Amino acid sequence: VETINPDMEETIKAGVISKMNERKQITGCIIDGPLALDNAISEYAAQKKGITSPVAGKADILIVPDIAAGNIFGKALTYYANYQVGHVLVGTKAPVIIPSRADKSEVKLNCIALSILCSK
Predict the structure, then answer these.
(1) Strand pairing partners for 89?
(2) For the residues 59-72, what does the mean pLDDT come to?
(3) What are phi and psi of 3, to 5 degrees?
(4) What is the pLDDT of residues 46-60, one digit of tens each?
(5) Whole-Å CA distances, 102 to 24, 49, 55, 99
(6) How do the domains of the chain map onto residue ranges?
(7) Looking at the whole model, is its pTM more than 0.85?
(8) Residue 46 to residue 1: CA distance in whole angstroms
């Protein structure tokens, strides 16, 4: 989904976050959304769909709508793609690290590093 749809709360939230970045309420990064996963990580997919975005195919941080979606997505990246991930819950007073008991030490270190970046 690449457009804000009033019937899909996640798209509204993504649009709000993008607008906050546009208004300099969130700085130090480039944010765009809503963007479907394929458009966020594949320039080819974005081009085929006619999507123009400064982050299309270049996203290095993905925001998911809830902890369940993040858990599924993170484990899929870890186990299907052998991808290095870091899991952090934001929107609280301080970032919350949420590693899995089965995570390798590198992933746990990524979680710590990401939480430090999120706290600034």
Answers:
(1) 96
(2) 90
(3) -130, 155
(4) 999 999 999 999 998
(5) 38, 37, 31, 8
(6) 1-63, 64-120
(7) no
(8) 12
CB-side neighbour CA atoms (13 Å) of 95: 16
DSSP 34-84: S--HHHHH-HHHHHHTT---TTTTT-S----SSHHHHHHHHHHHHHHH---
69-102 burial, b at 16+ Cβ within 10 Å, e below that, comes to ebeeebeeebeeeeeebbbbeeeeeebebbbeee
Assigned token pair, 99:
């590693």
Q: How far apart are CA 50 and CA 42, in angstroms?
A: 12
Do the Cβ atoms of 113 and 91 come closer than 8 Å?
no
What contacts 68, CB < 8 A, 6 or more positions away? none
What integer pLDDT is reported at residue 120 of this predicted model?
77
